[in-house]
What we know:
By secondary structure, the chain is of the alpha/beta class. It folds into 2 domains: 254 residues, Aldehyde Dehydrogenase, Chain A, domain 1, CATH 3.40.605; 181 residues, Aldehyde Dehydrogenase, Chain A, domain 2. 37% of the residues lie in helices and 20% in strands. The protein is built from 15 helices and 20 strands. The strands form 5 sheets. Strands 12-13-14-11-10-16-17 form a 7-stranded mixed β-sheet, sandwiched between helices. The protein has a 6-stranded mixed β-sheet with strand order 7-6-5-8-9-19, with helices on both faces. A hairpin with a 3-residue loop joins strand 3 and strand 4. The protein is globular and about 85 Å long. The relative contact order is 0.13. Belongs to the aldehyde dehydrogenase family. It holds the Pfam family Aldedh. This is Aldehyde dehydrogenase domain-containing protein. Keywords: Oxidoreductase. GO terms for molecular function: oxidoreductase activity, acting on the aldehyde or oxo group of donors, NAD or NADP as acceptor.
Amino acid sequence: MSERILAELIDGALSPQQQPQLFATYNPAGGALLGLAPAADAARVAAAVAAARNAFDDGRWSGLPAAHRADLLLSLADQLEANLDALSRAETADTGMLLSMTSQGHLPRAIAHCRYFAAECQRLAGECFAMDNAYWQIVQREPLGVVAILAPWNAPLAVATINLAAALAMGNTVVLKSSERAPFTLSLLAELIAALDFPAGVVNIIHGPGSPTGQALARNPQLDGLCFVGGADAARDIAAQPVSAFRRTLYELGGKSPTIVLADADLDAAVDGAMLAAFASNGEVCTAGSRLLLQQDIKDAFLDRFVARVRRLRIGDPCDPLSEIGPMIDEAHLWTIERHLETARQEGGRLLCGGLRPKDLDGSYLQPAVLDGVAPQMSLFRQEVFGPVVAVTSFRTAEQAVALANASDYGLAATVWCADAAKGLRLARQLRTGVVAVNSPVIRDVRAPFGGRGASGLGRVGGRWSMEQYSELKTFSLPLDGYALPRLGAGGTG
């Protein structure tokens, strides 16, 4: 049987006009070949951008009534919902994320994104100001134009759709690039969009590695906006390009998020929260609570409970409903995590549990690891691992906890656990993060802004902040009835 060729979508056509170079994508839970994806070269990238440019400039999308754009987004949501099981299984096969997570979290979120922004584009309202009884000033939002979205591999559909749906709702046209590590579900998205009534060129979906595909896309001068979801180093490369200076750019990057547990916290609840923060989505998520900051008085008691729970985590087939940790995205990423662990041990970190490959599993699996004695100068305290690895550091006072939490280039998320909610809120207000939770996991609502500070990114997505991200403001001036213009140069006759 021939290998499956994953779909790309350029100017309304699913199949490449010429035989492209192909790359393979594999299931990390055992290594089975899932399919071959077309790697877009510079010419294919240029064709995708040109298609989006033409579709924007001739108004075939931005010129449609908002209700029409909303109907198409709702149709896309309906198709995602109708294919939820197949898409969830495809994303699990491609990423190693638990099927319970993709089917109950990632895919429902993708559907919600399309429906939310379908409604949001019909709620857009301008403002009007009467100026000295002479002029009306009318302010409205307009689309940017052509937007590129570079999606990540850990939750490709959910992250892609919060940006895609907002950009489309606002009237932009889009070139969406999948990660070379997980192109499967975005190729299925291409097939769904091609079967709907989106005008040709409005949505273009391509695949390929960061170099050359991602670089060619990011450097294209025809883009009016760009969203990059990934690592800080790649974002710096994009930002250094001359074309980046004068276009709207959104960076959703990494994190080294702290979970802070104060001595008066409910330890059982705090352990539950720390487990969820560290190990949901295999720890391969930007908001992962990978730094565990424990007040000295309760450190031992907390770690006894926490490490015992970590050792009991069920590692296995992500399609097994009993599994709690699936495989890492691929062998290369697993090797990177193992190098982080080795460096941490060399620098003085004490491995309390995990860090080994399970002998009874075939695939890119890793036992979740907890390391104690991680000081601020150590690599594991500062560098994002993007896996099921927790660095433990102790503190004596709340002021020390704040200093440790803020001793990071990242500033995405944090959680605080304590009995006194007012004290927790005071501490939370001192944290340099975009998102913070008190006695709760970090929660994302599509209506609220999400994003980070520092090396965690630039800009916000969610709710009206997404609509602002993918639009420009325009101010119109109109004279009021009866207002007479001054007649310069009329010789006093006016």
